[in-house]
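Obj: model holo form, ligand = glutathione.
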Amino acid sequence: MPNPTLYHFSGSTCSQKVRMVLAEKGVEFISREIDLTKGEQHAPEYVVLNADHVVPTLVADGEVLVESTLICEFIDDRYPGSPLRSADPHQRYRAAALVNFLDTRLHGKVTGVLTHALLTRAAMSQRTVDQVAAYLAAIPDPAERGLRTSLLTHGAQAPEIPGAIDALARYFHRLEQHLAVYPWLSGDAFGIADATVLPYVVRFRELRFESFWNEGARPAVEHWLDRAVTRPSFDRAFTDWSSAPLVAAFGAIGGAAAPVVDPLIKAATRAAG
Ligand SMILES: N[C@@H](CCC(=O)N[C@@H](CS)C(=O)NCC(=O)O)C(=O)O
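Output (holo structure tokens):
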């Protein structure tokens, strides 16, 4: 069976999700890294594959596939190995609903707020004014460009931060309720829903934003995270593409924002129920 080619970026959540699904299915892939910090997602030869200028993109059997959730479902259907979606219609629906909510309501608009206000801003602080202007000008969607400009300007003080934290705290509450019924977000077994949510929770852990779940706030989420990160697929999808200095840098950036962000997370978590 020919190996697919994955266009991805080491630290991108959507790439981590697809790499995790590939690892769970035991599928080797040809790696083509698209460095988002260097703007490689805007290169004409990549935009031909992914018109939205985003990663990941999978090329399998000569077909170009975009949208990380659709890619994960394709991988699950196309390759042998344990199924990553439940055969039970209720479990399957509930898992798909968690994924859909994250994809359509949280990814970018909400999770991207924290990523760009903190991590992208830190990366851009090493660039010249002209380079930052070029980075922003290359973003094709005007609304996203405006949001990104605000986040890079204001960082942890950006007006978008409290609303994003509220939305995330409510989602953590929803995850907790789900995990009171099922051992995994995908139901009885680890699957696509777990691989989808995990990158965001790991990112918050790297930023030291554990107040979304620790100290008894969301014990089932904490237990789920502990189990998920011990899977062999986690090392192949996350650890092998990360580095200790990078994780240390994320911790330092999150730690610097903690005086502003941590009280917001704690208050939003209490309010979410
Ligand atoms: N709906 C898309 C979203 C993909 C997406 O937002 N990818 C991010 C990385 S996680 C990206 O490539 N961003 C480009 C940028 O930051 O300019 C999917 O699920 O594949």
